[in-house]
What does this fold into?
Amino acid sequence: MNKTFLSLTFLFVINSFFAQQTTTLFFKDGTSKTGTYKIKSRNLIDMSSNLVFFNKKTNESYLIDTITDVVISRDTEKEYYEVIDVKKNFDDKKTEKKLGFLAYSSPKVNMYYIAETIHSGGAIGVFTMNYGYKETYIKKSKDAIAYNMGYIYGAGERGIKKRVRDYFYDCPKLVELVDNDNIDKHNTFQMVKYYEENCAE
It folds into this structure.
């Protein structure tokens, strides 16, 4: 896809939504399958990285590890998802695979929304309850890993400008704009759009 901003028609993807829509799964081996799928998890504690797509009609299931992309057809519109490797903390050695809604796509940088929900016990998962929120991940085209812009260093709301300085080290002008509050430190979309249009080759 060329540079595109896709409107987020829903923030939190749930089983019932997938079950009602025509969904195409694209696999690592180059094949694809189209049908209606429910999403299950092999792990109630960390559901977002243990997803299984289940087709009730064919009784077939597919692990998230085998999938590269998911396209959902809604009337005349299509919504694009990618299975991405992510790190929650910048220094994490291990990565997780998550299903990210492709909110912004460009040659230099992509931005994803990942829906999260909170269990009654306090653990974070995905596609389990109605109460939820979204995390924003960004990935430069030269990188293999997407980073959570809110928790790159595991510091929550603290040190956002520091995270911007470290992540966008190759674009001093963008760092300066965020440092001086010309770009809101919470406006990740504006950052990636500026990066695409003004930074890096």
Q: What stands out?
A: The chain is about 15% helix and 40% strand. Confidence is low (pLDDT under 50) at residues 1-16, 118-131, 152-157. The two ends are 18 Å apart (CA to CA).
